[in-house]
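Side project, low priority. Logging it here so it doesn't get lost.
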Amino acid sequence: MNKIEKLIQLRNDMYSWAKIELVGTKIINDDSKIEILINNKGLKHTLKGKSYKNKEMIE
């Protein structure tokens, strides 16, 4: 497994963990005092966005 494949696997592992542990969690932004609900759409956007689909961009 090369370096890029390891990064992709790590990203997938993080996404799987976050889906179980973080979805539905509410946090408060310290600066703005706004409550933020972590949802699956936000996790996908952050961890599986367009930049992660192109192996050259991961490098």
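Brief comment: Strands lie at 26-28, 35-37.
Revisit when time allows.
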